[in-house]
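Moderator note: this is an archived Q&A kept for reference. The question asked for a predicted structure of one protein chain; the sequence and the answer are reproduced below.
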Amino acid sequence: MKRYNDFVIVGIDHGYGNIKTANTVTPTGITKLDAEPTFSKGVLFYEGSYYLIGEGHKEFISDKWQDSDFYLFTLMGIARELNREGITSARVQLAVGLPLTWVNRQRDEFRRYMLQRESVDFKYEDKLYSVKIIGCYVFPQGYAAVVEKLRDMSGVNMLADIGNGTVNVMYINNRKPISTQSYTEKMGVNQCVISASNAVMDKLGVKIDESIIQQMIRYGRADIDAEFSDVLRQAITEYANSIFDMLRRYEYNPKLMRLYITGGGGKLIENFGTYDTDRVTIIEDICASAKGYEQFALAQLKKEGK
């Protein structure tokens, strides 16, 4: 969150696996509850209904404004950032993102979705928040995550933003994004999780909990028997290889360009990918896009003289 004049800028990265703000990460699972729960942890109260946020992940939906969940996630993200500053009331300028190739087509709809109500009152974890949403910028996903690296991007560079639902690819030449060389593929980390789960079922006849696969992806190991570990390692390695196969379809050549990888899939590539560490940079900060959105929004506000 950034303060500017008499309002705050809140960047939110609406991933299918996690909702990220500049300082927080929350799994995108959401469940509408029938009644007020005993415990308030992760509970949002909005327009007479209770929602438990933070368990599981959101199923892929290409048009995020077509259901209410991402708006509810936005309120939760605002609350978590305001809570860090010890405040419960604020005027908020939102800064959000969409996949690279979807921005032009979906920007106006997503902005209207975010601005559906100017004044919003809601409770999150038993704290009442009163928020006035004064505006919303929509930026390209992925590109925002490398804003701190742009000064290093002379020559030809490829950006791969590996999220839970999609992989976004963009060329950045001499620090400038090339919009005509931007691509979106529906082969995010969730596809890897499904493949790994199926591999364990096919080879060992056991249904494995998704959290074990996520642990293997994140740390390169899990506290399980070696037989299961070997199956998972093979499946995840195959997915990592498929990512590089996809990048090569878009003419990735490590001898001619540098590769920057961001998003939740960065740890997967780091732990299971085969690549030249001198030519590939992995942005490990999962909140990098949300932070980038805030920086872009601040620059835009100053440019507009607001």
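Archived answer notes: The mean pLDDT is 93.
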